[in-house]
Amino acid sequence: MPKAFNGEAVPFSVTSFREGHDRIGVHLRLHSPSGDESLHGVTALENGLDRWVTTVALLEDGVWSFRFEAFGDDFLTWQHAADVKIEAGVDVELMREMGALLFDRAAAEKDRPAAERKTLSGASTALRDEQIGVEGALAVVRDPAIARFFAQRPVMSIASQGPLLELLVERERAGVGSWYEFFPRSEGAKRFKDGRVKPGNLRTARARMPAVRDMGFDVLYIPPVHPIGMTNRKGRNNTLTAEPGDPGSPYGIGSPDGGHDAVAPELGTMADFRAFVRAAAENGLEVALDLALNASPDHPWVTEHPEWFVRLPDGSIAYAENPPKKYQDIYPVYFDTDPVGVYAEVLRVVRHWIAQGVTIFRVDNPHTKPLEFWEWLIATINAERPDIVFLAEAFSRPEVMQTLAKAGFQQSYSYYTWRNTKKELEEFFTSIATETADFMRPNLFVNTHDILTEYLQFGGRPAYAIRAALAATAAPTWGVYAGYELFENVARPGSEENIDNEKYEIKVRDWAGAEARGESLAPWLRRLNEIRREHPALRQLRNLTIHWSDDDAILVYAKHLPAALSPTGRTDTIIVVANTDPHSVRQTMVHLDTRVWGVEPGEPFEVEDLVTGARWTWSDHNFVMLDAFTDPVHILHVKEKS
User: Fold this and answer.
1) The pLDDT of residue 321
2) Boundaries of each Glycosyl hydrolase family 13 catalytic domain copy (predicted)?
3) Which residues form the catalytic set?
4) H/E/C letters for each residue in 366-395?
């Protein structure tokens, strides 16, 4: 079933035609989940391919039903024939009488407003008046007011219906959000003079929430909070030997203190977790919890359900691998031996955390588990709680990643992390806005605790600013992992992840000091989220159009939302012009198809840079200069005409 989120402007399209030369019309009949019915006119695309489209903003959660209805449009058929024949002097009287009869028929419809009926009766009389010559008759044929009457209430000769189809509309957070990830054990952590570190916990981490809120984020994502095993515990930088005090990876889940339904004692208690969720809500944040179906060798599952794991010929249990990466501290759960048991246990775990207040799950490596399992789990949970959102962390092959979305995941990680050049980004943005938008919602994380791309490693501060601006404006959902605002860009040699990775140690960061010194990207992230809140066009996925520049590093795209589809009732248009090369100053000409937002080519319009406040008069061809070190991106708001 295709899906959308509440408030999304959804395009509905159909191929419709009939034999011969008579004109047709198409309607879209919608039924909301609560039973309300609405009828929408559908417009033919001027491409000669018999495609018809309309866009509707859907404002109610649940399953909508819809069907297309096609009909012979008697007015358009007559209007076209009369316009040609009367001007050519062919069948003039016949065309006039056919029009008069059509207008009489429409004027007799009791549901038409009285003013329309009066106008139509007058037009009928005029067409039958011999004193009115060719010009007078053509004036009636071409009268735009009469055409509007018939467009709103067509006169039909024949009609047909398409099949009844369904569309799932989920809550707004399923498609719109600004995510921020932190490790609770690092928030509130303190480093002593002798080098020892006192970890943070679920209580101390609450102090970081106001800063996350003030940067404009609305989803707080945390890695697993469960007990961590000691057997094969990883040390700093993924070493095989943990030193005393090394906290281990939170993905090595399970110890004598419990498994997936427990909180690690060093982080606090279940009551502390519930207090953490409540504090997040008080700060306008939803908590997203990692769902990682991994077990450390110390997990209760290993002894209670050994059939849930793969045994090697030597009798040992196979640990997780993603060659060349090895995860000796993790046993992946094996579904095939006891699927009933595994399904039931994971369902119990998810329900448990929902009962603690969790409404979003970021699912770790879902592509390594059966697709049918995820389809079953998400459908089961959403039948009970339609508001629960699942994010697939699946940097996998396109078909696998897309099939997970079709199986029910409300959001998906994507290839954005590795799309850096102008050409790559043009192709990627076009794809997510068109090819996969009916079923897959990308969450454009700029980095993760596992991913530090070469672009960020070597692009310096400009790279961080550019990637955040693109993620925040190109898709309605984006995310940041803590440390991004401090430009943490040193990689472990030979890898695409941070050295001194937070997965294996406690990070002590001076957030306030960095911002006071002007060494933080927090003000930039704050402004990006402010712009997103103020401009509904940026909270849509399907409305992105690529435009052009003469420079191979200057990316140009626009997001337009007509007034009829906007929650503000006002048209909203944003133009983004970005220098994708973080090492240079670029100047070039930018070329825009201004017809996208209703401005004719060559016609001037006013824009305001929402970053700097500068205002310019633009048209369809404009000069830009973008300095990656000072102003790498224009985020321009097209001002409405006064």
Assistant:
1) 87
2) 190-509
3) 364, 393
4) HHHCCHHHHHHHHHHHHHHCCCCEEEEECC
What CA–CA distance (Å, rounded) separates 118 from 107? 7
Tokens linked to 163: 């099949």
Three-class SS of residue 514?
helix
d(CA 293, CA 253): 9
| Long-range pairs of 256-259 with CB within 8 A, sequence gap ≥ 24 | 256/227, 256/298, 257/227, 258/226, 258/227, 258/300, 259/226, 259/227, 259/295, 259/299, 259/300, 259/301
Name the residue with higher pLDDT: 445 or 48: 445
Q: 504 and 233 in contact (C-beta within 8 Å)?
A: no
Is the Cβ–Cβ distance between 538 and 476 less than 8 Å?
yes
Which pLDDT belongs to residue 279? Answer: 98
Q: How far apart are the C-alpha atoms of 635 and 624, rounded to whole Å?
A: 12
**What's the pLDDT score for residue 43?**
94
Q: Return d(Cα 64, Cα 66) in angstroms, integer.
A: 7
Work out whether the CA dihedral 537, 541, 545, 549 comes out positive or negative: positive
Peptide bond into 313 cis (omega under 30): no
**For residue 212, which phi and psi values (nearest 5 degrees)?**
-65, -45
pLDDT at residue 188 in the model: 96
Q: What is the DSSP letter of 310?
A: P
Residue 56: φ, ψ to 5°:
-130, 135
The span from the CA of 376 to the CA of 156, in Å, is 46
CA distances to 24, 42, 56, 73 from 151, rounded to whole Å, are: 11, 10, 18, 9
| 278 alpha carbon, distance to own chain's centre | 26
**b vs e for 22-31, b when ≥16 Cβ sit within 10 Å of the residue's Cβ?**
bbbbbbbbbb
- How far apart are the C-alpha atoms of 545 and 473, rounded to whole Å? 12
Q: What does the radius of gyration of the chain's CA atoms come to, in whole angstroms?
A: 30
Distances (CA, A) of 382 to 223, 237, 274, 386, 408: 22, 38, 22, 4, 9
Quote the pLDDT of residue 227.
98
Tell me: the pLDDT tens digits for 298-344? Answer: 999 999 999 999 999 998 999 988 888 788 999 999 999 999 999 99
Q: Give the pLDDT band (50/70/90) at residue 107.
A: very high
Contact call for residues 183 and 250 (beta carbons, < 8 A)? yes
Q: Give the count of alpha carbons within 13 A of 536, CB side only.
A: 18
pLDDT band at 641 (very low <50, low <70, confident <90, very high): confident
280-292 confidence digits (pLDDT tens): 999 999 999 999 9
What is the tens place of the pLDDT at every residue in 564-590? Answer: 999 999 999 999 999 999 999 999 999
Per-residue pLDDT at 522: 98
Chain centroid to CA 211: 24
CA distances from 223 to 197, 235, 341, 450, 533 (A): 20, 18, 25, 12, 27
Please tell me the predicted confidence (pLDDT) of residue 48: 83
